[in-house]
Amino acid sequence: PRPHPTLRVRPLTCTETRRGDQQVVHSLGDGAVHVSAARHDATFGFSAVFDAGASQEAVFEGSGMRQLVELAMDGFSCTVFAFGQTGSGKTYTLMGPLGQSDTQPASPALLGLMQRSFTCLLEQSRSRASDLALSASYLEIYNEQVRDLLSPGPPCALPLRWSKSRGFYVENQLSVEFESLEAIVSLLLQGSQRRRTSAHALNRHSSRSHALLTIHVRSRAVSAIPLLGRAGGLRAQRGGANSPTVASACPSKQGTLCFVDLAGSERVKETGSSGELSVEANSINRSLLALGHCISLLAKPRGKRTHIPYRDSKLTRLLARSLGGSGITLMVACISPSSRCLSETLSTLHYASRARRVTTRP
């Protein structure tokens, strides 16, 4: 099957409205969106388009996210990633409003795809009466370093390895088992608060890293990784290529559900970035360029494809299986409707259109 690109158009911000920006993106219905501005007049098609009035619930139900959760429970490798210009609403779509914490939870209506998927996963697990073990790992890629967001202490760089059986994987990443919604949401918020963010001219809370939260769904009959400790109802474990396993006589399914919040593409001149912020922006743009290059090559017919350069960045290595391998992928393109962001909006729309032509074999 092909990835299912969906599009979300955020509302104009107060700053854009005061500045007199024009709205240049209009939904036509039936998954079509029209861009109209000076010297630009184009229509793009997607699996679904969510305009400024769409609720978080509508995005969850209309994007096919519920089906993705069910496929992960059936043993498939599933990925959802949000991409677009900085400040276009990627983190809001995945997580909901900023500033959430265990003591200050977000309004239920504003929760993003991640929390809604956790709820759906736990409900499905109970309704199927299936004996599943659920665990989570949370990583960020910052300046081409892979860092664990759940490990105690300051995030440290972890090596990225490759093996024939697993493909690319992160060595010694922490995986934490959970059994309740409160536990997994606490892990999400804990990791998100440690993620690198900064303020600049385009976004007061700009993500400076790519973040990957992976939910592992497996039968309890297989104990894939030795337990190291227990704290607060969460069991922490680390995995490597040669971790010992306990074989099971009965067949088991092992699926994954990975959420990827990509850092936003941006023009350094417009953000007013300098010094470390400028270095971060250049690193982000290089990895997104590598991702776009891989998608362009994967969109070609299989007989005309050349080598796919997954090794060009840590991001493309970790997404290799999701993009063109054995996974099922949902892509959420996030854009601003502002005339001032026209160039970045068109770039995102073309990016998502190319991704539509990629095929995988789950």
Report on this model:
The chain has 362 residues and is an alpha+beta fold. The chain has one domain (4-99, 112-220, 252-356): 3-Layer(aba) Sandwich (Kinesin), CATH 3.40.850. The protein contains eleven helices and 19 strands. The strands form four sheets. Strands 1, 5, 6, 7, 8, 9, 12, 15, 16, 17, 18 and 19 form a twelve-stranded mixed sheet that branches. A hairpin with a 2-residue loop joins strand 3 (32-37) and strand 4 (40-45). Helix 3 packs across helix 5 (113-127). The protein is globular, with a radius of gyration of 20 Å. The chain starts with a strand and ends in a 7-residue tail after the last helix. Residues 198-205, 222-233 and 241-249 have low confidence and may be disordered. One of its GO terms (biological process) is spindle elongation. Its main location: cytoplasm. It holds the Pfam family Kinesin.
Please render the helix and strand layout as text:
Layout: E1 4-9, H1 14-19, E2 25-29, E3 32-37, E4 40-45, E5 48-50, H2 56-62, H3 65-73, E6 77-84, H4 90-95, H5 113-127, E7 132-142, E8 145-148, E9 157-158, E10 160-163, E11 167-170, E12 173-178, H6 181-194, E13 197-198, E14 206-207, E15 210-219, E16 229-231, E17 234-239, E18 254-261, H7 268-271, H8 276-298, H9 314-318, H10 320-324, E19 328-335, H11 342-355
Parallel strand pairs: 1-5, 1-19, 6-18, 6-19
Antiparallel strand pairs: 2-3, 3-4, 7-8, 7-12, 7-15, 8-9, 10-11, 12-17, 13-14, 15-18, 16-17
Helix pairs in contact: 3-5
